[in-house]
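Interim report, section 4.2 (structural modelling).
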Amino acid sequence: MNSENRDKLRDEASSDENKSYVSPAVIKRLPRYYRYLRELLQNDILRISSGELSKLMHVTASQIRQDLNCFGGFGQQGYGYNVKYLYGKIGEILGVSHNFSAVIIGSGNLGRALAASPIFERRGIRLTALFDNSPDVIGKEISGYTVKSMDELEEYCKNNTVNIAVLTLPKTVVRETAEQLADMGIKGLWNFASTEIDLTHKGVVTQNVHMGDSLMTLCYELTK
Amino acid sequence: MNSENRDKLRDEASSDENKSYVSPAVIKRLPRYYRYLRELLQNDILRISSGELSKLMHVTASQIRQDLNCFGGFGQQGYGYNVKYLYGKIGEILGVSHNFSAVIIGSGNLGRALAASPIFERRGIRLTALFDNSPDVIGKEISGYTVKSMDELEEYCKNNTVNIAVLTLPKTVVRETAEQLADMGIKGLWNFASTEIDLTHKGVVTQNVHMGDSLMTLCYELTK
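Predicted structure of the assembly:
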């Protein structure tokens, strides 16, 4: 039996025990569905067929049906998916309903861009504070937040629940800072410092963002 | 014959005709290799074995050997890869040596963050200008560039080669702007406006960046 079939069997077995089990491969694709479903909702589209969604997302209709089957929420053949239901269900699985809180470490241009964007709010995440170590920035107001000193971080983490730290600080200091954050009990790091951070041994999960990778793919496509 | 074997055979056949053919699956992974190889070079590491690279990158050594075999540049068993050679070769394939030029459209926080970062220079891309349509920003100096008005863009594109436009402007205006850029002859779009742009029918390639997707994956990992 190849590993794909084994996964499938395991998936099926699991879904018997626990209706909300979703395989890791599907999980990886869910944020993209979530994004498209939100756009549909914003345009007041409440029902969509797998065929229509397929055209929109450039994914085969059969892939969509496979991915979304486990969520239910769709009626008879030809009736299409209930967009609002699916959006809610996917959000729930991805942790949107957990009401996570986040702080931004590094209040330079990128930190400010993120603080001003709807990126947290849209995913049910409360941004609660911005930190920096530069006297030029500390005390300034950015998007309604007064930037705090890094010296206040430990105290802040003691008095407030912080699930996620967004790392928009220089590469040279990011590793040391990440270690400190882990020791303060922060369990999620969203790292923009274009270097790989791995603190799984401290029970911390990290998403390392590498924006340059997509720029290189773009360059490659331009050479073809 | 399964599709993987077919790809393999085709790859082998192609590499007989043309030594620099690399399969799309490998291409997709190259930016990540490029990034790690740069870090090695920065740390004066000039040779690395597939085993060491495997540990560093959390990829199996056999995957690495498969991916990098087509580039040559490695000596006898146990001698390891020539880091500088591989870095140069991968850069060449990804278009680094094409000396592409780019402009940033939208000089808000994200545009400024990108302009100040080494993200272009590191990939052999010349950032030549920043544009905005806000009178508050036009004429201001950002990272050594005087922000130009969007009204000057068409003229600028006539007098200068522009390969890539970086779209760091609001979602509400990005589609219209992208169409205009395509009509001005720009062939590559790097889109940060968190909406999907597809102008392949105009011969334009686009990389749509969705930073929120990795944030959602992080949230999901936090719920486990």
